[in-house]
Design goal:
Largest sheet: 6 strands, antiparallel
Strand content: 35-45%
Oligomer: single chain
Order of helices and strands: HHEEHEEEEEEEEHEEEEEEEEEEHEE
Radius of gyration: 38 Å
Length: 377
């Protein structure tokens, strides 16, 4: 053969070998995938009919996710509560079998749906050693990352873990004050040091009872952004914060209550109300005075207006005024606030004290703070 013919023949042989190798690898990969699927089905793995096919996290996924998590003791909150877990409950009747096993590092629950995602409760009976959990019971929640729609999607979740205490018939609860961030790179969060193993397995403490029984649980809460909100604020400086009302011929007033003209301060309309003969326990002995939100003001049933103000009976001899501090919430149910025993008739009618001059009484309100609340939407 010529040199060119030999070269072509060698290239042809190499091409055939490449195709044969690729086909063999494809066949091996297909056989391996089929075998994995068959083993999962034989072991009870079933597709999730609600959220699609379940994704089973392999060991590397969980170890990477848990290893770089360092929970801060200052963020963990613990306590006891009556109510059982709402998202998932895991009861065991052979827990010591897991404690004594050298091969079973953790127990994974079946997937359960919350908020459109699949989750798994993960229990480390002897602690997650890769997360500083040796000697402790470790609890985690793992998200099935196949239920994450986008590759970089992040799911925020509040987690609350439970261990049933048979002595108290309550659930030991541990949670974090921060929100946990799940994504394809961080699929598992939890606590590596929930309870010391010795504490947990001592029957006297009530966590392991009836020989070998125990119960774990978790609440997975997906927080949503509030669609309704409100903004509270209080104005403390006004262009003209005072309103003075001059009442003439006080002794000739026969009605139980008299109301001033309307005045506006702090974006609201008000009236001063005076009871010349007193009201309630002040009747017959004291002048009573109130600040009232004007009837034209429309408040929602739940709305309140906070007021910090001073009510005064002015001393017309330029001596000391009689003054009372108002610190109240005005609402539709309580539109007026004041004092039934504001000033005694003895002081009021004593001409030497200067409160009533030529049968003229001067009362005043000074508004120091008035709140407003905006509601959205």
């Amino acid at each position: 053969m010529s040199h060119d013919t030999n070269t072509i023949y060698v290239v042809y042989l190499l091409f055939c070998l490449l195709i044969t190798s690729a086909s063999a690898q494809s066949l091996i990969r297909q056989s391996t995938d089929d075998l994995t699927t068959t083993l999962q089905q034989e072991n009870g793995a079933q597709p999730n009919s609600i959220l699609g096919e379940a994704h089973y996290l392999n060991e590397d996924d969980l170890e990477i996710s848990s290893r770089d998590y360092k929970d801060s003791p200052s963020n963990a909150v613990t306590g006891m509560r009556d109510r059982p877990p709402m998202s998932y409950s895991l009861k065991m009747e052979s827990f010591n079998t897991l404690l004594q096993s050298n091969e079973t590092e953790r127990y994974e629950s079946r997937p359960f749906p919350v908020g459109g995602y699949n989750w798994t409760l993960v229990v480390y009976p002897n602690g997650n050693k890769k997360d500083s959990g040796s000697g402790y019971l470790s609890l985690y929640v793992a998200i099935d990352n196949s239920t994450l729609v986008a590759a970089h999607q992040e799911v925020l979740a509040d987690l609350r873990f439970y261990i049933f205490n048979n002595n108290e018939r309550k659930y030991f609860t541990i949670q974090d004050t921060t929100v946990w961030r799940f994504n394809v790179f961080k699929t598992m969060w939890g606590f590596s040091q929930v309870l010391p193993v010795d504490t947990f397995k001592d029957p006297k403490n009530g966590y392991l009872y009836d020989g070998d029984h125990c119960e774990f649980g978790v609440d997975v809460i997906i927080p949503s952004i509030a669609e309704n909100s409100e903004l509270f604020s209080a104005t403390e400086k006004f262009y003209n914060p005072t309103f003075t009302w001059t009442i003439r011929g006080l002794s000739t007033l026969l009605k139980d209550m008299y109301s001033s003209d309307v005045f506006t301060i702090g974006g609201r309309s008000w009236n001063i109300q005076v009871y010349p003969n007193g009201r309630g326990e002040g009747e017959g002995k004291f002048l009573s005075m109130f600040l009232k939100l004007n009837g034209e003001e429309t408040l929602r049933p739940y709305e309140k207006v906070y007021v910090w103000a001073k009510l005064r009976v002015l001393n017309q001899s330029k001596l000391n005024n009689v003054q009372n501090q108002l610190d109240s919430w005005f609402s539709r149910a309580a539109p007026s606030w004041g004092f039934r025993k504001f000033i005694s008739f003895d002081d009021l009618r004593d001409s030497s004290k200067g409160f009533l001059v030529n049968d003229v009484l001067m009362v005043q309100v000074e508004m120091e703070a008035v709140s407003s609340t905006k509601y959205f939407p």
